[in-house]
# Entry
Amino acid sequence: MDIRQQAKKAEQLRGLHRGKNILVLPNAWDVASARILEELGFPVIATSSAAVAFSLGYPDGQRISRDEMLGMVARIAKAVHIPVTADMEAGYGTTLEDMAEMAKALVAAGAVGLNFEDVTGSDESSHVDTASQVEKIRTIRQVSSSLGVPLVINARTDVYLMPIGPAETRFERTVERLRAYRQAGADCVFAPGVKDTETIAKLVKALDAPLNILVTVGTPSLKELEKMGVARASIGSGTMRAAMGTVRRLGKELLETGTYSSWLDSAVPFAELNAILDRRAP
# Structure
């Protein structure tokens, strides 16, 4: 991809966090899902690290390699015309040198943004200390800017999602971390695991930064989130898991009744999907 065009896409993505309308991201995991979402009119493709990992046979939690994750990101970025932001988990490394290499590889893959989280494992012992995470964010910002594509950084804390630490201090610790990440150069901040209206509204006011909310069962509607001032809403692996739900329903129906009505009505017609994928790459 031409570096000037890639930089333009980064600014386009960055600008979508500043408008009155919420940026809605039903995350993709391969070229087919990305192309379908692009055809529907979504302005950005966001990948889900969990969904990409699942599709390649790995569990979530940085069990996939950086190169395998970037391989899929590159395929998607090459296949669509719109900006692509990649879920890069905790960067697939621990050092600032690892973060620098990840940023270089992400730009080379054609992406213009990333999700960057502050846990490296499956329990709270892997929670990266705030000072170290801040330095990692600064490194990603500096390296990508030096390459001519200032990546749009969506800095995430898993204080609520994992969850980490005492419940009564989660709000204060989340605000403290996300403020620090914003000051370090993050364009947007992400607090997955928060879904009640009161806490979301408090976070919007306390952070004074574009806030990303993970949409799940029990989360307020997109209209409600937009009214509260949430800048970005993502589905995460939910899109892919919904597709896998169809696979499971179809399999059960075939085994139990020998019929196949559960998927026919919602399936994308063969000719339509083939045409979407036959479109020339940008």
Observations:
- The radius of gyration is 19 Å.
- The CA atoms of residues 249 and 255 lie 10 Å apart.
- The chain has one domain: 3-239.
- The mean pLDDT is 96.
